[in-house]
Description:
Layout lengths: L1 H19 L33 E4 L6 E6 L2 E7 L9 E8 L2 E6 L7
Amino acid sequence: MLGIAAIITLIVAFILAKYFGLRGTWSKFVLKEEQHKDTGYVAPKNQNDLLGRTGVALTTLRPAGVILIGEQRIDAVSAGGYIAAGSAIKVVQVEGARIVVQECKNESKG
Length: 110
């Protein structure tokens, strides 16, 4: 019985997909917008050069906040959890626009 129900479900799904396609309710789930450079889309810049650099937390990171490395303010997330504002931090991971930091317990601030 379970096999017959599965076969009937596949047949009905195929018929619905063939006749209705992406019209109706299904089209609300499919993205139609594209982002192009000529319309103003700017991809995030490569920030791999920040890996291993140290700085200071300008705001409290719980886990997201703002850090300062040199003269550059950067949005970042903490690797573990809470980092108080003013704490020394180190960049431990860069994933595209996501900067992950951890607190430097034994290093001076700034």
